[in-house]
């Protein structure tokens, strides 16, 4: 029997956060393309950034890939290709620990830099501070789950791939399992809940730059040419006011 | 053949007095905002000198521009596309604010609220970056006029000339180098931009940053070897010189050119073959880059080129403007203009006429006649340092083209002196540099007395009616001067209702206004005088109450006597009448 609290936390909250995440990005892109940037502070300081930023970014990219593996791929699939539970966890813990360590060290460097360097701190908005708090909390809880949960077995033999993962996939396939999260250890619950709040916060912070990864750069021609738009004036003509030549062509 | 038109500029360095008027007016127009305090789209450097940002020309450090790979292919100096993406999290070769300079203001408030004291209060400098007190240690022109100082040791161009060169006081030479964005044919900033936000306009070749597409990856700052793309640290976006495109589109020169005191800037079109650009930028020997870039330009008088240009959709008046273009004349006809650092392989499109004055100064100091062709030719051949330095700036170190240009300038100086002094010109002088007397006199006219509309041949863009047409549809049709809709303001008082048209005057309107006798149309009894346009000439009707009249009297009838003083009409552009006034 699932309580109302569990329904709110593990069914309502994920969908609300997901809606804010998607709708927020659409809104931000529509109305604030100019504000859609990394807001780099490299101009002020680059000695610490040179180490901190790549460490953090590559670390968190690896962490993200690990989450896609651990949460997205069912245990039955990995078992089907011959990867045993023990092997999987050894891989996950070793790679995950390195990636997590890089993320934590990088983030610590970046936050230290942001707090101690005057101009960088001056360029920090309230939204940035809130975002750092949430992100730091999620990363810390995640590290705790890896170290305490998977390495030291603080919670016995809890296998998140049969619990948290199934719940999360269910969100997207509409097979809701709030009871699985209700049964998970507290630190896993906290990690999930804070992460959901971070996702809701995402579109309103500088984190939007994640969706600007310029993969297209690898294929596009080096020099981009643009022509003036054919229409007259700076705005598109209103309906019924289009030029007549266009229809004649 | 793929013909494109390029709006470009030539600067005659002999005329630059280093007054920084171009920099200041440009800054007032474009970069007087927070986040761009340290940004100068136009700056003037004293050469030899370190430049702005410091030592930007040392591409082994800053990795700007293009380089040839071992297989002879063109590649960004900072690395290929994959490396560019892999280093996206911390752009490795970006100058810091200290390499530009830390912008500052002064604590002016102290001057007014300091308590009574024995000594006058001092406004201390405060950093615009950190907001704290600071010591001013560098700026965009900190080594201004410091030819011969120890600061020069860091000039990367001087280092290339020769390690034997010691800047002894006696050998000192100095000139000014005004710089804007080069609006290159092969822009490495655009090629470095991961987001594809930097683009080259197909119509006139102006390179711009799309502020909505820029994501602040800062790769363009590294990519540009001239360091003319800047990072706005408040908005987190790249910004660069726009070639004042809103002015160019209506036929006006850029702000830097318009306000240039020495009238040393020329603006015009060049037609070029876009298909040949890459090949021209890939020639192996850097010394060939000057000639290969010249070969990309197309002769606007060639009937084939004219036909192809029209087939490519370049309007007829643009082709005519390309034929009248001072740029084409200086680059390809007289061949006196040279590109800045062609070895960066970006095919820059702001070219320079190298200064003869360092040579003239040396000859003059010896007591010899510094305007005699023979003396100048000999000096150009023997004075290694200025010539080699200029060659490192303009021809990738090849002294022959620089010597050729300087000799042409020397020949012109000497030949025209005879004519000015009332003697017959000596035809052997132009011949010595491979020119006819007619060519020499035409070149003299372009370099020395060219008027406004000869220096700036800018055909308006063919959307110049766009804004007006748009206003037609959105404004009240009766809202013309004197029309029944001319209520003066909207329903909610002054400032409400449809906005005042923002369109910049086009060249013809500006000329009409400045050569007109009155500031308002005398045919219209209700003509309103725009005070911003009133240049102080005459007293237009309706501007002042008539003397001795009650103030609530009806407005003056249009006075034909307004501005009757013809002597007052020495508007700055009356030179466009062909110089008859002088």
Structural category of chain A: mainly alpha
So what's the overall shape of chain A?
A: globular
Query: What is the distance, rounded to the nearest whole angstrom, between the alpha carbons of the first and last residues of chain A?
Result: 68 Å
Beta-strand percent range of chain A:
under 5%
**Helix and strand composition category of chain B:** alpha+beta
Q: How many H/I helices of chain A?
A: 10
Helix content range of the residues of chain A, please? 55-70%
How many helices of chain B does DSSP assign?
24
Largest sheet of chain B: 4 strands, mixed
Largest sheet of chain A: none
Q: Average the pLDDT over all residues of chain B and give the rounded result.
A: 83
Q: Please give the number of β-strands of chain A.
A: 1
Describe this structure in words.
The complex is a heterodimer of chains A (249) and B (582). Chain A has 249 residues and is mainly alpha-helical. Helices cover 63% and strands 1% of the residues of chain A. Chain A has helices at 4-31, 47-72, 75-80, 85-116, 118-122, 126-151, 164-173, 178-182, 186-201, 245-248, and one strand spanning 224-226. Chain B is of the alpha+beta class and 582 residues long. Chain B has helices at residues 21-30, 59-62, 81-86, 97-100, 109-113, 156-161, 188-192, 219-223, 245-248, 255-258, 277-281, 289-296, 303-311, 316-324, 326-333, 357-365, 373-382, 384-394, 399-420, 428-432, 437-449, 452-455, 466-474, 507-515; strands spanning 3-12, 43-47, 66-68, 74-76, 104-106, 125-127, 175-179, 198-201, 207-209, 229-232, 237-240, 265-273, 338-339, 350-353. Chain B starts with a strand and ends in a 67-residue tail after the last helix. The relative contact order of chain B is 0.11. The model of chain B is unreliable at 464-504 and 553-582 (pLDDT under 50). Chains A and B meet through helix 2, helix 5 and strand 1 of A and helix 3, strand 8 and helix 23 of B. Strand 1 (224-226) of chain A pairs parallel with strand 8 of chain B.
């Amino acid at each position: 029997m699932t309580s109302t609290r569990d329904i709110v936390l593990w069914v309502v909250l994920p969908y609300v956060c997901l809606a804010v995440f998607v709708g927020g990005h659409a809104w931000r892109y529509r109305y604030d393309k100019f504000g859609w940037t990394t807001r780099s502070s490299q101009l002020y300081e680059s000695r610490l950034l040179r180490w901190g930023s790549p460490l953090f970014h590559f670390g968190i990219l690896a962490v993200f890939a690990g989450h896609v593996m651990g949460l997205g791929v069912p245990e039955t699939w990995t078992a089907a290709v011959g990867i045993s539970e023990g092997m999987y966890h050894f891989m996950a813990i070793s790679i995950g620990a390195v990636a997590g360590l890089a993320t934590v060290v990088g983030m610590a460097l970046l936050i230290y830099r942001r707090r101690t360097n005057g101009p960088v701190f001056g360029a920090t908005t309230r939204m940035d501070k809130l975002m750092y708090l949430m992100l730091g909390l999620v990363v810390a809880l995640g590290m705790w789950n890896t170290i305490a949960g998977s390495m030291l077995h603080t919670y016995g033999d809890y296998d998140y791939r049969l619990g948290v993962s199934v719940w999360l996939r269910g969100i997207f396939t509409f097979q809701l399992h709030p009871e699985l999260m209700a049964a998970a250890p507290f630190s896993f619950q906290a990690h999930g809940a804070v992460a959901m709040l971070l996702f809701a916060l995402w579109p309103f912070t500088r984190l939007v730059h994640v969706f600007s990864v310029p993969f297209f750069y690898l294929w596009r021609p080096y020099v981009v040419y643009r022509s003036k738009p054919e229409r007259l004036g700076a705005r598109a003509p209103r309906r019924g006011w289009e030029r007549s030549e266009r229809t004649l062509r | 053949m793929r013909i494109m038109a390029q709006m470009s500029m030539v600067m005659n360095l002999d005329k630059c007095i280093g007054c920084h008027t171009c920099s200041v007016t440009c800054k007032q127009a474009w970069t007087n905002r927070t986040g761009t305090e340290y940004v100068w789209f136009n700056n003037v450097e004293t050469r030899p000198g370190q430049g702005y940002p410091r030592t930007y020309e040392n591409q082994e450090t800053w990795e700007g521009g293009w380089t040839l790979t071992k297989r002879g292919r063109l590649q960004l100096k900072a690395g290929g596309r994959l490396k560019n993406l892999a280093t996206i999290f911390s752009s490795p070769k970006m100058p810091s604010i200290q390499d530009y300079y830390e912008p500052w203001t002064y604590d002016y408030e102290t001057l007014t609220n300091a308590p009574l004291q024995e000594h006058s209060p001092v406004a201390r400098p405060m950093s615009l970056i950190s907001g704290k007190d600071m010591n001013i240690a560098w700026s965009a022109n900190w080594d201004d006029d410091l030819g011969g100082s120890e600061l020069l040791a860091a000039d990367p161009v001087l280092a290339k000339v020769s390690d034997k060169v010691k800047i002894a006081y006696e050998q000192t030479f100095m000139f000014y180098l005004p710089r804007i964005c080069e609006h290159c044919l092969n822009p490495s900033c655009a090629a470095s931009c991961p987001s594809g936000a930097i683009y080259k306009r197909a119509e006139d070749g102006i390179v711009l940053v799309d502020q909505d597409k820029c994501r602040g990856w800062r790769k363009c700052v590294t990519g540009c070897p001239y360091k003319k793309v800047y990072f706005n640290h408040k908005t987190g976006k790249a910004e660069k010189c726009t070639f004042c495109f809103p002015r160019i589109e209506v036929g006006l020169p850029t702000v830097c050119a318009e306000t240039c005191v020495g009238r040393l800037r020329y603006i015009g079109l060049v037609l070029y073959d876009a298909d040949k650009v890459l090949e021209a930028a890939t020639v192996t020997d850097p010394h060939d880059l000057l000639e290969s870039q010249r070969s990309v330009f197309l002769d606007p008088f060639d009937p084939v080129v004219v036909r192809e240009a029209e087939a490519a959709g370049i309007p007829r008046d643009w082709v005519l403007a390309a034929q009248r273009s001072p740029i084409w004349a200086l680059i390809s006809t007289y061949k006196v203009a040279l590109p800045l650092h062609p070895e960066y392989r970006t095919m820059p499109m702001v070219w320079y006429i190298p200064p003869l004055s360092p040579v003239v100064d040396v000859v003059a100091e010896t007591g010899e006649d510094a305007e005699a062709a023979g003396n100048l030719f000999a000096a150009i051949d023997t004075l290694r340092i200025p010539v080699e330095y200029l060659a490192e700036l303009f021809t990738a170190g090849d002294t022959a083209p620089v010597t050729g240009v300087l000799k042409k300038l020397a020949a012109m100086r000497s030949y025209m002196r005879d004519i000015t002094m009332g003697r017959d010109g000596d035809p052997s002088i132009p011949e010595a540099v491979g020119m006819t007397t007619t060519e020499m006199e035409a070149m003299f006219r372009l370099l020395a007395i060219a008027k406004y509309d000869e220096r700036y041949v800018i055909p308006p863009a063919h959307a110049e009616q766009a804004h007006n047409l748009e206003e037609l549809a959105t404004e009240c049709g009766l809202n013309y001067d004197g029309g029944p809709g001319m209520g003066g303001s909207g329903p909610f008082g002054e400032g409400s209702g449809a906005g005042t048209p923002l369109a910049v005057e086009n060249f013809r309107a500006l000329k009409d206004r400045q050569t007109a006798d009155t500031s308002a149309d005398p045919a219209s009894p209700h003509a309103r005088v725009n005070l911003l346009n009133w240049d102080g000439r005459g007293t237009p009707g309706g501007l002042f109450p008539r003397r001795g009249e009650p103030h609530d009297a009806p407005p003056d009838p249009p006075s034909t006597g307004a501005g009757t003083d013809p002597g007052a009409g020495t508007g700055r552009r009356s030179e466009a009448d062909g110089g008859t006034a002088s």
